[in-house]
Specification:
single chain, 129 residues, alpha+beta, Muramoyl-pentapeptide Carboxypeptidase, domain 2, globular
């Protein structure tokens, strides 16, 4: 991440994450299109159970809010004495936005603490205009 940022700029990191996410998260994106926000809720429940992160959720068919107390990846990076990239938050922001692109839903990173990775992520139904 820092290699891309240092050699090609911040936007190169976002572009890489978008391209990666389009492929890696294609099944999740398809599930989101088919079943709605419940697909994301189930995905994050499983993910944080596996990674051991503490989360809380607020869910309805039109809005899903995920609160992460501390990002397990940030904790792992810091525990091993490595610096966390200043663009690490993009692994949440850009990835979530890419998963939601071309679906009835949108994503926003409402809050993010770069020291702990604590975040509030909001997914919501786009208004039909």
């Amino acid at each position: 991440m820092d290699y891309l940022r240092q050699h090609y700029g911040d936007e190169s990191v976002r572009e890489y994450l978008r391209e990666f996410s389009e492929t890696f998260y294609a099944p999740l994106k398809d599930d989101l299109k088919q079943r709605g926000l419940i697909a994301l809720k189930e995905y994050f429940e499983k993910l944080y159970k596996t990674e051991g992160g503490e989360i809380s959720m607020t869910f309805s068919p039109d809005e899903f809010i995920l609160q992460v107390q501390a990002c397990p990846a940030v904790e792992h990076i810091r525990k091993n004495g490595h610096p966390v990239s200043p663009l690490f938050y993009e692994t949440t922001k850009t990835v979530n936005e890419t998963i939601c692109r071309d679906t009835p839903f949108a994503a926003e990173l409402v809050e993010y603490d770069p020291q702990t990775g604590r975040s509030v992520q909001r997914f919501y139904r786009r208004s039909s205009q």
